[in-house]
Design goal:
mainly beta
């Protein structure tokens, strides 16, 4: 495992005046377990082709080609990203370049330097001044679910429905 030096101090020194004993991991060296609300980053040098799915928020700064599906999570297309994929997520924020259709159950936001070539579909859409967008926009909201109190049971109408 690589251990980076902080502020020019040699390995084993934390800057507190006393060195950390060799072999004792510092708190920042331990892997962080995936927890609810975690965000995964795909760096600038990463190139992926195929199907990308997940159950965490995702920030992409590299290149992805294929499909991206993040149900109930946030997808962020970072400033260095070059995406050629159909994307589906709860919310999508585009700061880099995306080529493909984007579907979100909550909102899509194309920021100032963001670029989208493809159709977008979400109940809420924001396109900032200076952003590039070429495609169609569908902002239809899905029909609201029928409340359980108004559903009929066993095919018999409720007392308020009988008249």
């Amino acid at each position: 495992m690589w251990k980076r030096q902080e502020h020019g101090l040699p390995n084993g020194h934390t800057g507190s005046g006393s060195p950390t004993p060799r072999g004792t991991p510092e708190p920042n060296d331990r892997p962080t377990p995936a927890i609810h609300g975690a965000t995964v980053n795909i760096g600038q040098s990463v190139v992926m082709k195929g199907e990308l799915t997940g159950s965490e928020d995702l920030v992409i700064d590299g290149q992805v080609e294929g499909t991206i599906t993040l149900q109930n999570h946030l997808l962020t297309i970072g400033p260095s990203a070059k995406i050629k994929a159909n994307m589906s997520a709860k919310s999508v924020v585009v700061v880099g370049h995306a080529h493909g259709n984007i579907t979100a159950t909550d909102k899509i936001e194309i920021r100032e330097n963001g670029s989208v070539d493809g159709d977008i579909s979400a109940p809420r859409v924001t396109i900032a001044e200076g952003a590039h967008f070429r495609g169609s926009v569908d902002m239809q909201t899905p029909p609201p679910a029928e409340p359980a109190s108004q559903k009929t049971r066993g095919g018999n109408p409720s007392p308020t429905q009988r008249r």
